[in-house]
Amino acid sequence: MRRERVSRTLPKKCVEWLNKKVKARIYANKSHAIEILILKKMREEKSCHPP
What are the pLDDT digits (tens) for 5-21? Predict the structure, then answer.
């Protein structure tokens, strides 16, 4: 998958949550976490809205 740089601003609580998940090695880094969570949401929406 081709990647594109994206700048983001998030609420402090979201960043703290991301940092905890990265520290627990659930995600490799914050970018990885955001990518995985977005892909999961995209799959959920696709399964809820068949063509």
Answer: 999 899 999 999 999 99
Is there a domain that residue 4 lies in?
no
Return the residue matching tokens 């955001």.
34
Containing domain of residue 23, as a range?
Answer: 12-48
What distance, in Å, lies between the first and last C-alpha atoms of the chain?
Answer: 23
Q: What is the CA angle 37-41-42, rounded to 5? A: 115
pTM score, whole prediction: 0.79
Count Cβ atoms below 10 Å from residue 18 Cβ, excluding itself.
20
